[in-house]
Structure formats: structure tokens, C-alpha cells
Amino acid sequence: MAGTACDLRWERLFASGSCGKICNKLIFIALRLKIDSERLLIFLLEPNGIGATLKRDREKWDQRYSEEQGPPFSPDPWLVEHANLLESGRCLDLACGRGGNSLFVAERGYSVHAIDISLAALLELQNEANRRNLDVQSIVMDLDYCSLPVESYDLVLVFYFFDPRLMDAIRACLKPRGLIIYATYNHRHTSVRPGFNPAYLVPPSGLVPYFPDFEILLSEPYAGESGNITRMLGRKRHE
Ligand SMILES: C[S@@+](CC[C@H](N)C(=O)[O-])C[C@H]1O[C@@H](n2cnc3c(N)ncnc32)[C@H](O)[C@@H]1O
Fold first, then answer.
1. Residue 221, CB-side half-sphere exposure with 13 Å CA sphere
2. What is the pTM assigned to this prediction?
């Protein structure tokens, strides 16, 4: 189911509370978990995802986030470097982790949907966003199973997450003139982390071919000390 886009407006879904909705023949269930008096954490689940991948992957990532030390909310330095491109509007941070990037852009005026499979990471993010009074909505979601709303975002951030099946949906969820800021590991990463699943690494052809209808503002196919990171800045063209 990864890679589909739909015209569901998430706000409507969230506003309606725990419910089922039909979208692209999928039934979504939005569960609302109140974490303080102000803001909620949303679970957006597709029924097939509940018992299978969601559980297994969430356990793996939850464990990693509970064991990991270090400053949890720092933005990626490459995003900070390009902060001059940020404007305001709606942002989607895909596979956001603890959401340092979400908080960074929210502080610059964006209203952020922050998606990740890890409940542990998103609880930390949402608590921090609430503490700073920032407009961040955390959404627990398995990107292997769920769809993204079309033409809904002015900015999409993807840092260190790549699944070729999602690329159509990523393109489609941006509004015309919307900006994508993408940095993730490429095929050379197996020389740094030999066990890494090559299916989740950018192939030698790079990220650019996935965005044919975009103006490419910057393409860095082999960044980082080991050349194992691919980075791209692009803007969706008008039709
Ligand atoms: C390498 S981390 C990157 C986190 C963050 N973007 C950053 O740069 O710090 C990859 C993230 O993908 C999330 N993830 C992995 N599989 C996922 C899935 N199927 N659906 C949603 N998130 C997923 C993990 O929980 C993790 O937070």
C-alpha cells in the first residue's frame, strides 16, 4: 500500500475523533491519544498495518530511541544551512524521529505534520512541541501501509528515510511551488554499514529522477565524508 496518495483531508479525519474512513479503498482509523490538556497524538492506522509491520518496526525503533543518548532535538545541519529557503505554511516531516527538524521549521512559522512509526520518539517530540507552544501534530503511522494527502504541503522534509514505493506519494503531496528538502543514505552506505538493506538506499541513478516535474535547486549525489549521503533540494513546478 505504500506510495498511494489520496485527497483525504487529514484535519477532517482528526477532527472527527476515533473513526473509520474510506480512502482509496483503504479504511483508516484515527485514534486520538491525549498527552496533555492541549494537544493530542494521532495514530493513523490502516487495518492491515496494525498487527503486522507496524508492531514489529515500532518495537525496533522504540527500543532504539529509548536506548539512544545525545541531544534529541537538534535539527540536521544541512537543513539549517538552507534555512534561507524556508517560508511558512504547511510542512510534512516524513519519518521525523524525535523531530528536531519539525521543531526547527515550526519555530520558523510552519504548521507541521510529523509522521513516524515510533510512538516513543513522537511522544518526546509532541511533549517538546507543546512545551514550546509550537504548531506540530505528531502522527504515528506506518508508511508501508498508509497514504498521504495530495497537494497539501508547502514543504516536505525527508531525512534518512528512503522507500522507492513512496516517491509518487511524496511528489503528489506537495502543493505546486512546494519545496522538498531530502537527505538520505545512498548505495555506497553498505561500505559504512555492511548489513544495511539495499532496498532502502538511493540507487546510483540518484534522487533527481524521482522528481521529473520539479525544478532541482541543488543536487548532491555523493555528500558526506564517505560519499554515502544523497541530498536534493527541489521545487514542484506549476502544472
Ligand atoms: C534514520 S531515522 C531518521 C529520523 C529523522 N528523520 C532524522 O533525520 O533524525 C529513520 C526513521 O524512520 C522511521 N521509520 C522506519 N520505518 C518506518 C515506517 N514504516 N513508517 C514510518 N516511519 C518509519 C523510524 O522510526 C525512524 O525514526
1. 8
2. 0.87
**How far is ligand 1, taken at its centre, from the CA of residue 187, in Å?**
18
Which letter does DSSP use for residue 150 in this model?
T
> Looking at ligand 1, which atom is closest to the CA of residue 157?
6
Instruction: Compute the distance between CA of residue 18 and CA of residue 48 in angstroms, rounded to an integer.
Output: 17
Cα–Cα distance for residue pair 170/213, rounded to 1 Å? 12
Which CATH number is 36's domain given? 3.40.50.150
The answer to whether the CB of 121 is under 6 A from ligand 1 is: yes
With cell 485527497, the residue in question is 7
Q: How many domains does the chain have?
A: 1
Dihedral of the alpha carbons of 170, 156, 75, 78, in degrees to the nearest 10: 80
* Spatial contact of 99 and 159, defined as CB atoms under 8 Å apart: no
Ligand 1 centroid – CA 125 distance (Å): 13
Ligand 1 center–CA 48 separation, angstroms: 20
CA 239 to ligand 1 centroid distance, Å: 31
List the single range of 115-129, 152-166, 182-196, 221-235 with lowest mean pLDDT.
115-129
Summarised one tens digit per residue, pLDDT across range 58-85 is 788 888 888 886 567 999 999 999 999 9
Q: Which domain holds residue 177?
A: 5-236
Per-residue confidence at 173, pLDDT binned at 50, 70, 90?
A: very high
